[in-house]
């Protein structure tokens, strides 16, 4: 066991505002934050994002990846959304990550700055998928390489799978906030995720946050599914 506490982010992946609000309410006592991302934001816009998040800390998973000027300008439009965490792709490179850092510091007042989290290698990718896009070597090596670059360039933390927590901690120490999707409770459908662990395994590996969507939102009883995951994190 790592000694860190691991908290749950529930991914409200839907285009439907009422549905997102229902899931948020059902998981409220068990989750430390809610995720809204591309699916909901493109369908409903930033005002609806703020409405759905309500007073829950918001993990705004927009995975920004563009030239530095465009990423910085986009972040400038997020002030009213008040995210607690915001994602960019580490593969956007040093200048893009640094521009995101500057934009956050210039947009949000002290005490209200979202954590800047850099997505390393998507948890839906395995070694073969990574090789297909021209990145050789192991997923672990690529995650550590991108993690180092991101932290040097001003990120506060990283999005990775549970499998890369130990090598990231070995390379970067305790400072990075590690947010971990690709979580599948025992017996739940894996779907498109490739690098997975159970909530208890992710906790033992030292995740700060786990991100869970379909195992909660597609469950017959989302509240019970969220409660079971929260119990795994606190056992
Ligand atoms: O590498 C990544 C980065 C982000 N995600 C997001 O996490 C959730 C996972 O949802 P599940 O339904 O539990 O698979 C989803 O919102 C992704 O956009 C990720 O899975 N992997």
Automatic annotation (TrEMBL):
EC top class, as a word: lyase
Keyword S-adenosyl-L-methionine: no
Entry binding sites for substrate: 13, 35, 61-70, 123, 184, 193, 213-214
Ranges annotated as spanning the membrane: none
Pathway listed: Pyrimidine metabolism; UMP biosynthesis via de novo pathway; UMP from orotate: step 2/2
Source lineage: Bacteria, Pseudomonadati, Pseudomonadota, Alphaproteobacteria, Acetobacterales
Cited function: Catalyzes the decarboxylation of orotidine 5'-monophosphate (OMP) to uridine 5'-monophosphate (UMP).
Protein source organism: Komagataeibacter oboediens
Name of this protein: Orotidine 5'-phosphate decarboxylase
